[in-house]
Specification:
Helix content is 31%, strand content 37%. With 124 residues, it is of the alpha+beta class. GO terms for molecular function: nucleic acid binding.
């Protein structure tokens, strides 16, 4: 069951990456782990000149709330911490404007809903 969930998560993240790349974003990194937080996707939005930290949330059924609803205050703080650590480790991006997006996925096959600028650092 755990391996199946991990496989589903990887497939959904790959679909989200393809979706974002088809919209013009450029992939920089994925599944970046730090103590206290993880970044699913790190993308560059050349049109906006922004570094984009993307949280991918899959729900088999949307009836219990969409994926964005599961990105609560605690999750936002962990994402912010991971983003800060990423920027520290990649000084070439340290002065770039940043945003936090969420890609919700639900159903079989998963339908994607991209929420640009889903939350801001000062919301944490």
């Amino acid at each position: 069951m755990v391996a199946e969930q991990a496989g589903r998560g990887a497939a959904v993240e790959a679909a989200a990456r393809r979706h974002l790349e088809s919209a013009g974003l450029r992939w920089l990194a994925g599944n970046v782990r730090y103590r206290g937080g993880e970044l699913d996707l790190v993308m560059l939005d050349p049109a906006a000149g922004s570094l984009v930290f993307v949280e991918v949330r899959y729900r088999r059924h949307a009836m219990f709330g969409g994926g964005a609803a599961s990105v609560d205050a605690g999750k936002r703080r962990r994402l912010l911490l991971a983003a800060q650590l990423y920027l520290s480790a990649h000084p070439q991006h340290a002065q770039s404007p940043c945003r936090f997006d969420v890609v919700e996925a639900s159903g079989e096959p998963p339908r994607l809903n991209w929420l640009r600028d889903a939350f801001r650092a000062d919301d944490c």
